[in-house]
Specification:
single chain; Aspartate Aminotransferase, domain 2; Aspartate Aminotransferase, domain 1; seven-stranded mixed β-sheet; three-stranded antiparallel β-sheet; 14 helices
Length: 480
């Protein structure tokens, strides 16, 4: 390599200069630091062996980038590379949350435009990007509800009604907010049992939390009437927006009576999901509830954009800073590329793909709610019981066939549930390959069930004792 391209020198003054082409960049002064006389005694590894080591490690990872990932409810859809390019733009990448507003107008403008986009999609005009995840969005909204009832002197509302098919975060968020979660039954059709809801609505009802479409992939056709019932007793309706990718551009939650909701940018707007990294769960609320939203809020006026913290009715801050901006920026790139027509097309394709898989698999696997679904559907292993095959066996066998398993054993209202969500990003060829492998698994369940019981056999380790792993985790590497 040409030494002018990459050359470190130690000068008489003890400074080092990194020369990149014609640009000299002075590095930190190390004159007062002890320096090695000899290089460290590190193992010598050939470049080829080093490259192979890291490539082998990378092959142990499973992601949407290398296999079909039909993880129902979690919506593991592809994150476009263009999003990452946007997040890598220098000015955005270098922005620090302590910068004054005058030095980060572009950052604040992006945040404001994302708020406006979410308001347009949901129909709820007041938006905050503050929550760091969907679950924190739920908590934020319930705290907003508490503040709303306190402000109007209605302190006796302690109950949060939640369908039994809900995500587990719903009752957890209610409890953390100091409210009492109350379960509302699902009917035989998988929808909210309106009679049970009627029996539990009352003067102590604070919020009805509903996921729509629900975790069975079903749209609640009585949602407008349900919202009216909740409002009639003075309560608020919160919608778990985890499944917004089936509705956006087609139906706005505010139009059927929703007062509050969160949106999962990782599920709906293609930002990274999982891995313990930063997330984003913005909440959208009605004009009446807007004054209670967390601070800081982005404000646009004649002088540009600024962060407003002077909000006496706000529930305050639930986390550091205003948002996880890198995630917001990725979502903004996706939103701008889609536009209004693209948003609707995303929802249409998500619904088409899910129904295509449902129809192709319903003869081989039991589909308990075999009608038009939205973005996902639930199947079971009822037809495979004679071979002692369970949902976990199907999931493990899918690993051997090159697919990430679907979600199993959720929602809890369906025995041996397998929740399949193909998302809108998959091609028909990928869906057909998945169908063929699922049909093969159904055949193996009849003729060679032990193949499923022994799976997976292609992975570095076989089937783990997952219950024991939770109770007795091994958190460090063991030799031998």
């Amino acid at each position: 390599m040409d030494k002018d391209l990459l050359l470190y020198e130690k000068s008489r003054a003890g400074r080092r200069t990194l020369r990149l082409g014609k640009l000299d960049v002075p590095a930190a002064d190390t004159s007062d630091l002890p320096l090695r006389e000899n290089p460290p005694d590190l193992p010598e590894i050939a470049e080829l062996e080093l490259v192979r080591h890291y490539v082998r490690l990378s092959k142990k990872n499973v992601s949407i980038a290398d296999s079909f990932y039909p993880l129902g409810s979690c919506t593991m859809k592809y994150n476009p590379v263009a999003n990452e390019a946007a997040a890598g733009i220098g000015g955005f990448r270098a922005a620090h949350p302590l910068l004054d507003a005058g030095r980060c107008q572009g950052v604040l403008a992006v945040m404001k435009r994302v708020e406006e986009f979410l308001a347009a999609v949901t129909g709820l005009p007041c938006v905050t990007l503050h929550p760091a995840a969907g679950a924190q969005g739920e908590l934020s909204a319930l705290l907003v509800a508490n503040a709303h009832f306190a402000a109007r002197g209605d302190g006796g509302r302690t109950k949060v009604l939640i369908p039994d098919s809900a995500h587990g975060t719903n009752p957890a968020s209610a409890a953390v907010a100091g409210l009492d979660p109350v379960t509302v039954r699902s009917g035989e059709d998988g929808l909210v049992d309106v009679g049970d809801l009627d029996a539990k609505l009352g003067a102590d009802t604070a919020v009805f939390m509903v996921t729509n479409p629900n975790t069975l992939g079903l749209f609640e056709p009585e949602i407008a009437a349900i919202c009216e019932k909740v409002h009639a007793v003075g309560g608020l309706v919160y919608m778990d927006g985890a499944n917004l990718n089936a509705l956006m551009g087609i139906a706005r939650p505010a139009d059927f009576g929703v007062d509050m909701m969160h949106t999962n940018l990782h599920k709906t707007f293609s930002t990274p999901h999982g891995g313990g990294g930063p997330g984003a769960g913005p909440i959208c609320v009605t004009e009446e509830l807007g004054r209670f939203l967390p601070v800081p809020r982005v404000v646009e006026d004649e002088g540009g954009f600024r962060l407003e913290t002077d909000a006496p009715d706000s529930i305050g801050m639930l986390r550091g800073w205003s948002c996880n901006f890198g995630v917001i920026l990725r979502a903004y790139a996706y939103m701008r590329r889609l536009g209004p027509e693209g948003v609707r097309r995303v929802a249409e394709n998500a619904v088409i793909n899910a129904n295509y898989l449902r129809v192709r698999l319903r003869d081989a696997f039991h589909v308990p709610f075999d009608g038009l679904c939205m973005h996902e559907f639930v199947a079971t292993t009822r037809h495979q019981r004679t071979g002692g095959v369970h949902a976990i066996d199907v999931a493990k066998r899918l690993i051997d066939l090159g697919h990430h398993p679907m979600t199993v054993y959720f929602p809890l209202v369906v025995n041996e549930a397998m929740m399949v969500e193909p998302t809108e990003t998959e091609t028909k060829e990928t869906l057909d390959a998945f169908v063929e492998d699922m049909l093969l698994i159904a055949e193996e369940a009849r003729e060679h069930p032990d193949r499923l019981h022994d799976a997976p056999v292609t992975t570095p380790v076989g089937r783990l004792d997952e219950g024991r792993a939770v109770k007795e985790p091994v958190l460090r590497f063991r030799r031998g």
